[in-house]
Amino acid sequence: MWGLIKKDFLTISRDRSELLVLLAMPMILIAILGFALGGLMFNGGDLDAIPVALVIENELEEDIDQFEQLLNDQGLPAPAIEQILASVEELDPAEHLQEVLRSPELSDLIDLSEEYQQDEAEEALATDEVLAVITIPEQFSYQTLSAFYLEEEPEAMIDILVQNHEQFQANIVESIISSFTDQYNLELSIAFATGGEAEETAISTADFGEFIHIPNQEPISAFQYYTIGMAMMFAMYVASTVSGNAFKEKTNNTLARLMLIGERPLHYLASKVVSGTVLTMVQLIILFIGSSIFFQTFNQLNLTFLLLMFLNTFVYSLTIGALAALLTAIAVQFNNDAISGIFSGGVVVIFALIGGNMVPVEQMSPFISELGNWTPNGAMMTAYLQLMQGLELSDFAPLLYRVLAVAIICLVVAVAIFPKRRLS
Fold first, then answer.
1. Which residues, including other chains, have CB under 8 Å from residue 279's CB and lie 6 or more apart?
2. CATH code at 50-200
3. Where are the CATH 3.40.1710 domain residues in the chain?
4. Is pTM beyond 0.70 here?
């Protein structure tokens, strides 16, 4: 078996095109993506203020007059009406929302503009002049006060328009409004339970969330992200390279001659697992060392970190070795190398996109992000990044188990379909 493994190493090391794909291309892409996209996607945790248009269609004085007329129509006594109207401005949700959006706590996060009319704001949204439009509609105060004091069905609603392609910023704006409405509803409930004494409490403007970084760790940099991403992506090409060489050995009768001299088929298949595993480990180690030298990717090294890096690398390399065995088994059994071409030309690219090797998928969609963690490259990329952020093995161990499960499935299927006797 060791002779077969040595042969695989010599074959690949003499193929300059394979070395270019496995080693040179990832380093080139790390440099290009790190320099070109790093400033756009990875800015060390700093976030420019989100331009937001606030459109106020609500007229408080008119709403108070209309509400007073409603109270008179309900037949409430004059002293009760006076008492209610005295607390109306304290409860006005439109005023509270404006105070929240204008608060110093949100000034670094929200760049608020209030000079727009509704049609102008929507046009600004379409041209990316603003990323969100918050509209306080007509009779908003009236509807809220009626729902509170007269227990009518609430119809007040704050309208939010956002740009879909700016999902991260849109989520921030939506979270702020959601937090405001939740807290305001809580304040109304308290006021209702205490007989309308809402003036004793206040809407907090400080608890609308925060950015949390792992203690003592810097956020992931562009070069760190793309080093892991390109390493995970190009490691998959090892599987197609190993299986492609195996098919060549079958077509030039090398495999048949090995069988004639007593080499067992499963030993041959096992050699492809070992070759794929060792080749992937060598590739990943070279890429990590090269990236550290040229881009200072790993600059906080300690024994625990290195051991966990080695564990991650071994698990992923073993999975690539198992995948190489599966592709080899399919190519040999069906006497066709199309599977290697399909894998390297299509499957790798699709997995790289879903797994976040090319772009941070968590900024695109939570569903795609979760789906990516079910691909071997995506799961391992998350494991590497979590390790680099200072998380413990127990935090990303489920991802390693998931990838090992893929390796076991590939090995079982490869053994099941690989020819055990005659090779034609």
1. 8, 9, 12, 238, 241, 242
2. 3.40.1710
3. 50-200
4. no
